[in-house]
Amino acid sequence: MGSSGKFFVGGNWKANGTKESVSKLVSGLNSAQFPSEVDVIVAPTFIHLPYVVENIDSRYQVSAQNCWVGRAGAYTGEIAPEQLTDMSVPWVILGHSERRSLLEEGNDFVGAKAANALTHGLKVIACIGETLEQRETGHMYDVLEGQLKGVADNVVNWTDVVVAYEPVWAIGTGKVATPDQAQEVHAFIRKWLAEKVSQEVSAATRIIYGGSVNDQNAAELASKGDVDGFLVGGASLKADAFATICNARAKVPA
Ligand SMILES: O=C(CO)COP(=O)(O)O
Q: What is the CATH number assigned to the segment(s) 7-250?
């Protein structure tokens, strides 16, 4: 059973884009068609956020890709949640596997960031996911539980949290999880939320899938009951492909 919330599609632009390419992408997105029953979020780099906030149409919501764990202050190079809300940025992606692995962000740190962001009025896309080695050595569920616990130990109110399941082996590799693999893990996450947080949170929280989602595979993944949307990397840089993904729930897979 999927969440009671709207289908959710996020585009994580990662560290991509120039003034020129971002402007082209925004105008492509402004011409794209998708149903109003889908929440569509785009996450440009910090440096492109003001341009995107100003120029993308109001069908889209804008997200940062990270924020600081505390208040604004003497934290060189960081951006605090209240600075994002001040810039009309309502969402933030936290705990992405690239930050977990490259910057060694741990489960509790990600959870603390999520709690801090929520306290300051941001909505959070909290990412979790196992590596191929963890999956193949039978540690997948332990890893996912640890990551979920990091969020659950810190976050009190889950209303503005979306959980993104992004298996590391599927990110940027072209090796998308099969619809059954995604469904199996999403169902596990939903059960974990029911048992460890609450039935209400489990029923209301959107659990989205990320990792090599594209315009060809999105509809079949979206047909799975517990897949409430997507977090898209590479394909979110192409307006046409991203628009197709935003329409995935409406399409019946061939
Ligand atoms: O990491 C991702 C989204 O956050 C997924 O990236 P790709 O869609 O490029 O595999």
A: 3.20.20.70
